Amino acid sequence: MTADVEMTVEKPREGVALAALIGDLDQRSGRGLHDRVADIVRDEPAYLVLDLSNIGFCDSTGLSVLIGIWHLMHQSGGSVAVVGVPTRLQRMLTLTGVDELLPVHPTAADAVRAGPAGLPAEPGFGSGMSDGR
Fold it and tell me: Reduced to 3 states, what is the DSSP secondary structure of residue 17?
């Protein structure tokens, strides 16, 4: 397992941040990820999309980190969704009911297109981002 999760952030449109995560989401990496997401929230995006397609491992601590990110976004008046969720993690989200907090979309383009409540949808989004996320 890695000591940290790599994260790249794109801002596909006003008020939206897309964070692609790479690595393992566990006790050793979770705190650093939470801190980096807090930095994104300070930039005031209304909507955060987490691309989890390159998460190799996620344990219960990693799941707690995802819930903590939801709390962070919710407290700032924003919302969060996830995309590219690996099968094992999807099962964890469903069994624990966390998928009720974190909407799951098949691709980043779908999540950004859907947007959160209160943020107008942008129907033309998707040309600059792979639908494979």
Answer: strand
Q: Which residues of 107-124 are buried (b: 16+ CB within 10 A; e: fewer)?
A: bbbbbbbbbbeebeeeee
Cα–Cα distance measured from residue 58 to residue 54, given in angstroms and rounded to the nearest whole number: 11
pTM, entire model: 0.82
Q: According to the model, what pLDDT value does residue 38 have?
A: 86
Residue type, 19: A
The tokens describing 19, both together, are 């964070």
Is beta strand 47-58 parallel, antiparallel or unpaired with respect to 79-83? Answer: parallel
- Say how far apart CA 114 and CA 77 lie, in whole Å: 18
Q: Which two tokens stand for residue 63?
A: 């799941």
Contact between residue 43 and residue 72 where contact means Cβ atoms under 8 Å apart: no
Instruction: Tell me what percent of the chain is helix, strand and coil, each rounded to the nearest 5.
Output: 40, 30, 35
